[in-house]
Write a structure and sequence with these properties.
This protein folds into three domains: 134 residues, Rossmann fold (3-Layer(aba) Sandwich); 101 residues, Beta-Lactamase (2-Layer Sandwich), CATH 3.30.450; 338 residues, 3'5'-cyclic nucleotide phosphodiesterase, catalytic domain (Catalytic domain of cyclic nucleotide phosphodiesterase 4b2b, Orthogonal Bundle). With 748 residues, it is α/β, with parallel strands linked by helices. It has a six-stranded antiparallel sheet with strand order 7-6-10-9-8-11. One of its GO terms (molecular function) is metal ion binding.
Length: 748
């Protein structure tokens, strides 16, 4: 790919454009430094040609420096087009090199001259840069290798060691680079031993054997070592690569050595020994140094740790893998080592976003929704809720009866049992109070008053109190969103597989949790509240701040006044069970645990059910019931249900999907505006109302959070209509994005 940066079209730019077409290169043209930088960051061109002939248009050297500051330009070839001055003395190219240019091109608008220049670049600098890019992959492999690797020059000067080498020998890389090899193997036949090694490697052959080396602290360690000469320029040996592994004391290998022809490295190597795994901790070695007293204390502590009778499940898994390693072949043992490394991480379920060419919309969404903000001390404080007076039952007007609902509202709720129910029509009919009316109808359909043993008037008062504590000023997190999530929850509860799984108390908990799950939401994310040092963030220790607040406030509002206390007639133990389920479901809407919930659902429910079907047990009700009805799996199903209900907007009919996308975008725009006003970290920079592409943000959210989750939920609950809407909405957003439109709808 080639980027041409020319302020104006002329014969020179046309010449390069023609040359790109002839060579089959993709070509972009930029007229300003800003557009050039944006285009490069988007496309990552292999060659950039910048016009340096007319300084009145832009500073070519400044543009080159700007491009070079980006990570993406590391392997980019940048050409400077300079004026031809036949009557002047040749000027130095050093200023251009300093600015970051790769080479210069003296202006020549001849098409073939431009073509020849591009072809020379392709087979010269560009091809070399491709090789350098590949080197990054190779060095990544070296850095992650569990074998200790050391690379030296032909004169035995150390040029590179990997982290495994540092760990084995006790050195830091800075202590070794550019140093000569002064430590030699300690062996009873030292001189003969070194001669044997040198006689192999100096004639281009590989040596492999056992020797002792000294660590930084003076300890001697026995290693199995392979030394490979690397042939370079002129057919001479230019480097030596040493690959080492520790030998276990209980698995010594004969100290033999052998030479292996460089051309036949696949021949049998008799010195290989079978148990050289790095990473299986030998307690004796960790306690062998220091005073006798401290050694004995450490041994005693380790013994107590290993004799503990209270083991977490993850500890049992790690112990099983450790035991399996002892009798496993080398490839299996190494694979188990990698598995152990993963299991010992703290975030087992969260995928790691790449730091390089990651979509900024995805990065910002993940940063804004799945973190608790950038920790920073600030004088700015965002005061929320702790000093607010919340609406209570006595301060509200008398609620209407379910039998006395105005005709327009009744009509708006006619198809509330269908997925395509239009919540925005109900919002308009109720003057932005849809939660009370929809709640009354859905709760009546599910017999909630009968289960709770409360009157309809108490339920009406409760719904009014909850709705009054949603902020109508929020564009997204208001009572219409709560009503939408309540509707989705009720729809999911009506699906046959879900009805088979959940008990009446689960249904009641799910509907109540959906109703209260965002009560008193301030229209700002957890990250914002943590960065702003809000009272809520301090109260909940920057952890699940909003979700904890929603759950706590919901019970405070409910229990402080008998007029709206829907729980007042419940038996104590049943109330505690119900309360526990409601809290768990509300907390499940917090996005930092999104992938944990989804992955557990897939592994504990989707896969076992699929296995039963594959084995022909589709009709085996007992086997399916065992999977569905276990207490642990019912918890996972309830969490998944409310999570899908909470972010189901992309699965709604198109017009509803578009409306929700506009509302959430506006809320994020307002947060970005406030962060900039208050001097807070901007957690989602792409949500700038002047530059944000709503189609891109929707596609990123759908791709990262929605598709996998709804695939899993559809496989469980059978939701073909939702998946059809989702696919149609993806096509819609892609259509807008393909036309480079940043708005919700195409122009008329």
């Amino acid at each position: 790919q080639v980027l041409l940066v020319f302020a104006e079209e002329d014969e020179q730019s046309n010449g390069f454009r023609w040359a790109c077409d002839k060579a089959g290169f993709r070509c972009n043209i930029a007229r300003t430094p800003q557009s050039a930088l944006e285009c490069f960051l988007d496309k990552h061109h292999d060659i950039i040609i910048i016009d340096h002939r007319h300084s009145r248009y832009f500073d070519a050297e400044a543009l080159c420096r700007s491009i070079r500051t980006t990570k993406a330009s590391e392997n980019t070839v940048i050409i400077c087009v300079v004026q031809r001055h036949p009557d002047r003395e040749e000027s130095s190219i050093l200023p251009l090199i300093s600015a970051g240019f790769t080479r210069r091109y003296v202006e020549n608008s001849s098409r073939m001259a431009c073509y020849n220049e591009l072809i020379q670049l392709e087979f010269g600098q560009v091809q070399a840069q491709f090789k350098l890019r590949a080197c990054n992959s190779l060095f990544t492999a070296l850095e992650k290798s569990q074998e200790a690797i050391e690379i030296t020059s032909e004169d035995h000067v150390i040029q590179y060691v990997n982290p495994a080498f540092e760990t084995m020998m006790g050195y830091q890389i800075g202590e070794l680079i550019e140093k000569e090899l002064t430590e030699v193997p300690i062996n009873e036949k030292k001189a003969d031993f070194l001669d044997a090694i040198n006689s192999c490697i100096k004639i281009g052959k590989e040596w492999q054997g056992m020797y002792y080396a000294k660590k930084k602290n003076g300890d001697s360690i026995q290693q199995n070592v392979k030394i490979l000469p690397v042939i370079g320029q002129g057919g001479k040996i230019r480097h030596y690569v040493s690959i080492s592994r520790l030998c276990n004391d209980n698995n010594k290998v004969e100290k033999t050595c052998e030479c292996i022809q460089a051309e036949s490295q696949t021949d049998t190597q008799t010195c290989r020994h079978k148990d050289m795994r790095k990473g299986s901790l030998d307690v004796r070695s960790t306690t062998s140094r220091g005073s006798d007293g401290s050694s004995q204390r450490r041994r005693s502590s380790m013994a107590r740790v290993h004799s503990m009778t209270i083991e977490a499940p993850i500890t049992k898994v790690i112990n099983i893998i450790n035991a399996a390693q002892e009798s496993s072949p080398m490839p299996v043992a190494e694979a188990l080592d990698r598995a152990l490394e993963i299991l010992r991480t703290t975030e087992l379920y969260s995928p790691q976003l790449g730091t390089k060419d990651e979509d900024p919309h995805t990065s910002d969404l993940v940063g804004g929704l799945m973190t608790d903000g950038l920790r920073r001390l600030s004088g700015n404080e965002y005061i929320l809720s702790a000093k607010q007076t919340h609406q209570v039952a006595g301060s509200l007007s008398s609620p209407i009866s379910l039998n006395d609902i105005p005709p327009r509202i009744t009509q708006a709720m006619e198809n509330e049992e269908q997925w395509d129910f239009d919540i925005f029509e109900l919002e308009a009919a109720t003057h932005k109070r849809p939660l009370v009316y929809l709640g009354l109808k859905i709760f009546a359909r599910f017999g909630i008053c009968e289960f709770l043993n409360c009157s309809e008037s108490t339920l009406r008062s409760w719904l009014q109190v909850i709705e009054a504590n949603y902020h109508s000023s929020n564009s997204y997190h208001n009572s219409t969103h709560s009503a939408d999530v309540l509707h989705a929850t009720a729809y999911f509860l009506s699906k046959e597989r879900v009805k088979q799984t959940l008990d009446p108390i689960d249904e009641v908990a799910a509907l109540i949790a959906a109703t209260v799950h965002d009560v008193d939401h301030p229209g700002r994310t957890n990250s914002f509240l943590c960065n702003a040092g809000s009272e809520l963030a301090i109260l909940y220790n920057d952890t699940a701040v909003l979700e904890s607040h929603h759950a706590a406030l919901a019970f405070q509002l409910t229990t402080r006044d008998g007029k709206c206390n829907i729980f007042k007639n419940m038996e104590r133990n049943e109330y505690r069970t119900l309360r526990q389920v409601i809290i768990d479901m509300v907390l499940a809407t917090e996005m930092t645990k999104h992938f944990e919930h989804v992955n557990k659902f897939v592994n504990s429910i989707n896969k076992p059910l699929a296995a039963l079907e594959e084995n022909g047990n589709n009709g085996d009700g007992e086997s399916i019931k065992t999977v569905l009805r276990s207490p642990e799996n019912r918890i996972l199903i309830k969490r998944m249900l409310i999570k899908c209900a909470d972010i189901s907007n992309p699965c709604r009919p198109r017009e509803q999907c578009i409306e929700w996308a506009g509302r959430i975008s506006e809320e994020y725009f307002a947060q970005t505006d406030e962060e900039r006003r208050q001097g807070l970290p901007v957690v989602m920079p792409v949500f700038d109302r002047n530059t944000c592409s709503i189609p891109k943000s929707q596609l990123s959210f759908i791709d990262y959070f929605i598709i996998d989750m709804f695939d899993a939920w559809d496989a469980f609950a059978d939701l073909p209509n939702l998946m059809e809407h989702l696919n149609n909405n993806i096509k819609y957003w892609k259509g807008l994005d393909g036309r480079n439109l940043r708005v919700l709808r195409p122009p008329p």
